[in-house]
Amino acid sequence: MKDDKNFGETGAAYGGNLGGEPGVPFGAGSFSGSGSNIVRPDAHFTDDEREGNLRPQLLSDFLGQTKVKDNLSVFIEAARSRGENMDHLFLIGPPGLGKTTLAQITAHELGVDFKVTSAPALEKPKDLAGILSTITERTVFFIDEIHRLKPAIEEMLYIAMEDYELDWIIGQGAAARTVRIPIPKFTLVGATTKAGMVSSPLISRFGIVQRFSFYEKEELALIIKRSAGILNIAVDEDAALLMASCARGTPRVANRILRRMRDFAQVSGSGRITKKIVADGLKRLEIDSLGLERYDREILLSIIQNYGGGPVGAETLAISIGESMDTLEDYYEPYLIQSGLIQRTPRGRVVTERAYEHLGLPHKTSSQRNDADGASSDADGGQRLLF
Length: 387
What we know:
Number of helices: 15
């Protein structure tokens, strides 16, 4: 990430002049730091710089999420015509669907500054204050993984969102007092993959709430062809559709598959992505017809083979496949549920009949599972009698 050149000045601007920092009495700590690990102050991304940025910069270039895009275009135009900051925006959806990109586009369309951070990077209230004290009028401030905000930082954010002020504590002990410092009016864009973990008081402060959904195959094919043009690689129509069908309904995955197919096409000497190259490439990458990767299949097989098809809890399942629970719940589960391969029940995860069919395994009925459980119990009982 790039450093915020103004971040280090906030100690002089606030801590120096007022003799304190947010939530910390004067003398208890100092307010300084480059902020390089906390905020990214501009709208430029480096992930694709070597081969052309695949992120669209305009709302008209953003493909898919039609309802979200149509609503946002109205809100942007209304705020722009009034010369006001847009209402705070809350974006909900699985990873890779374009939440960060849409936040960046919002700033670009409004013609304002764009700052990016993530909730885990905000460790102390002064980290948030350091960012908010450098924003300009109508800045779009994007916080990713907002469900992971610490309570003290979230409380500071309430005041900033509602009153456009920061609480600053001067002095300590009985002599301590709080001073409220005005900040420019801004638009907070919060993004989360876990809306249920965001507190109600925080959600209620967002004037606009939009939910992202997985993309259709045809939408992903259009995204792939657009990206292929940027990467200067030819791709056949049927090849784009095949890649799209295996992209888990997610543009990020679609672009990742496209890059790998470009590698296969260039090394093969054709320089063009054909359906055959895609089919061969997907096989080598262990991506099947539903877009399932090796770990997806391991999840399904683990539930079937180790837990009789379920139910099984997320923590137990994550341990059994050697993945973190966050990765299981954020990356793998949404698509498996969307594809109708597993269900989440109050007792845990259960595989569906479709999962058995996709894996080519015989599907045990509930009565068969109960019979097997009964036989297992009888065997256990016999062992207890013997030993």
